[in-house]
Amino acid sequence: MEFWKAYPHKVDKPAALKAWPSLNPDADLIVAILAGLERYKATKPEWQAWKHPGPWLNARKWEDEPAPEAPKGPVQRPQPTHGDYVMDTIAEALSEDDG
Length: 99
What we know:
The protein has helices spanning about 1-5, 15-25, 25-45, 55-60, 80-99. By secondary structure, the chain is an all-alpha fold.
């Protein structure tokens, strides 16, 4: 099975072998599944565990939309606004009154 050869996390092969024929895959579906698998392999975050192949097939995960790419480079922090300054000034004045 081409899917099994390509799947990076080779666990529970019987579940994958059971799921595959239930899809009744023709050539176009096999191409779509393998393309979705390549997308999954390329975009899965390192910290995230691999899904087992049988449930991946049963859930038709190849049809999932690709995850949005994380922004590259340093995270831009929003600049304080005038309203932030006013709120900070009020908070300081109130804390001085309590002290």
